[in-house]
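[step 3/7] fold_predict: job queued, chain A
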Amino acid sequence: MTRITLEGTRARREQPMLAWSGFLTIGVILALLLTNRVAAVVALVAVPIIFALITGYSLGEIGGFVSDGLGGVVGVTVMFVFAITYFGIMRDAGMFDPIIKRIVRWAGNAPATICVATTALALVAHLDGAGATTFLVTIPAMMPLFDRLGMSRLTLTVCVGMGAGTMNLLPWAGPTARAAATTNVSANDLWVPLIPAQIVGMLAALGIAWFLGKREQRRIGTTRLESGTRQSVDSEKKETSAVSASTAAEARGGENTHPSNVAQSETASMVLTAEESELRRPKLLWFNALLTLVLLVCLVVGVAPPEMLFLMAAVIALVVNYPGLKKQTARIEAHATGAMLMATTLLAAGSFLGVLEGSGMITAMAEATASAVPAGAAPALPLIAGLLGVPLSLLFGPDAYYFGVLPVLNALGAQYGVSAVEIAQASLLGQETVGFPISPLTGSFYLLVGLAKVDIGKHIRALFGWAWLLSIIMLVTALLTGVISIGVGS
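[step 4/7] structure written:
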């Protein structure tokens, strides 16, 4: 009995030290990530281990914490690697090309339909969850239409941002994968309940795009729409297409940029290098579309773990589209960089969370924070996280928020019985999803404003209000469907 009492007293004495170690760990990681001092992997692995050593844990104990943490993120990591590979193969095979052509052709010359088509194109292009790919497809495709009619390029970036943002809730997108790793639940389990909210968000984005198009039409005026200045605009269109093709080629590694190696199509987005043309598989279009549809249905229904579904789909896609060892190896290598970058980050996050949880830091932090938070405010943590998601995207990148802030919110919520899953789901309705196209802390953001050649500050001001509105609309939908509750969770 005496031994138990002494251990309990020692634990109580260690609680303040653990809490301070935890807060300092989070603070240092956030500082490093926000100032871009080191890669996320370095911060997430090194800082927690150093503070755990300072706190008094041995390397053997820390090794156990790390192993436990890695076990919790293996599934998410595998899913993300094979999701990137699968959608990369589909893009190489040209599955998205007919959709892009039809959307651009449907846009016509009316500003309203052009804006709707732009948002719809961003929705489709972002199916692989990669912001850079989305912007490389949508901006070059639609910018000549905007320029020809004298429409604002800020409206272009707003429409693209809304489409990409609402689609960024997908389970293989970065924010959901990070939230799943932090919350230790399947990314699919986070996403499926949010599908109604995501659909409402997509419809709302298309509605806002229609409104913005009508506003552009009023601004331009009927006379300019009818007469135009075709000669000057045609030369500008050619220049824009050349710049777009050059930018896309640079993003692919700078190969095959000579004009003789480029096959022009009816839109700037469909400018293909000789290598890309060789990779296209038009005869397998319907097979690839059916395979993707079956994959999505299986994900929603949950017939198997997402990582297994993507693994099988990627294998089938490789075998059918690119038979032979040489071709398959080339396709895997082509998408390895993006897959491994995210995989290493997720594994580093598992190490970080394992150390915080195993050492007791996260519990001590939650208890310390709980004592300072009014009990009446704690049950509203999901609502608060949802409402502040878009504004916080300006302050925290995806790594900083989901690996630094969200664990503290989850642990705090646990003190009052608030579901960590609900806090994560509420965060996903704004933080670095709808909010990522305005976040200077994400690399693809600069690609968006750079391709459209718009001022960063003006773009953020133009999109911020609409992005926040979309986030609130999705949050309200999640509340109405019972996915997120204001009261105390289980």
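[step 5/7] annotate
The first strand starts at residue 262 and ends at 263.
DSSP finds 24 helices and two strands in the chain.
exit 0
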